[in-house]
Amino acid sequence: MSIFPFTKKKHYFNDVDQAGIVAAIQSSEKRTSGEIRVYVESKNPFMDPIDRASEVFFNLKMEETQHRNAVLLYIAMKDKELALFADEGIYQAVGAEFWNAAVKKMLSQFTKENISKGIEQCIRQVGDVLTEKFPYQPNEDKNELPDEIVFGD
Predict the structure, then answer these.
(1) Domain membership flag for residue 9
(2) Using CA atoms, how far apart are residues 107 and 110, in angstroms rounded to an integer?
(3) For residue 63, what is the domain's CATH number?
(4) How far is 90 from 69, CA to CA, in rounded Å?
(5) Which of 14, 79, 127, 141 lies at a 20 to 30 A Cα distance from 119?
């Protein structure tokens, strides 16, 4: 039994905002062999946001991508926490400074109460670096992970 109740759908975003986030994932992934997922839950029930993002990342089996280039954007809405967790292939390719800057840029949107636009902007930024480091390979690339937002409790 999974510890993540994926069947519950919270209403953190309206339909337009949710569709915009999914569209940002899909358009980013069309240019790269990398994978991007968004996980949103109400509260971080366990730990430091990075540790929670790591736990979610591995429970979603995101480390199983061919090039180890998956990225998870983790958000705990009520706790106002977020983290980017990248697999070893892409994390090492760009280094910690990129990830810290991406989080800061997203937080600047969040402080303007523009959460969905901040998420979309972060997805595009991650997509750009994935495209640079892991460009789309027409003969071998496939969508290895679902594009929909994953909602926890």
Answers:
(1) no
(2) 5
(3) 3.10.310.50
(4) 5
(5) 141
Alpha carbon distance 4, 46 (integer Å): 13
Total-model pTM: 0.89
Helix runs in the chain, H state only: 15-29, 49-59, 88-94, 96-110, 115-133
Give the 3-state secondary structure of 95-130.
CHHHHHHHHHHHHHHHCCCCHHHHHHHHHHHHHHHH
Domain assignment of residue 27, yes or no: yes
Residue found under tokens 């992970």: 145
pLDDT per position in the chain (153 positions), as tens? Answer: 334 444 445 578 999 999 999 999 999 999 999 999 999 999 998 789 999 999 999 999 999 999 999 999 999 998 888 999 999 989 989 988 999 899 888 888 887 778 999 999 999 999 999 999 999 988 888 999 999 999 997
Quick one: which of 36, 42, 44 has its CA closest to 62? 36
Classify residue 124: in a domain, yes or no: yes
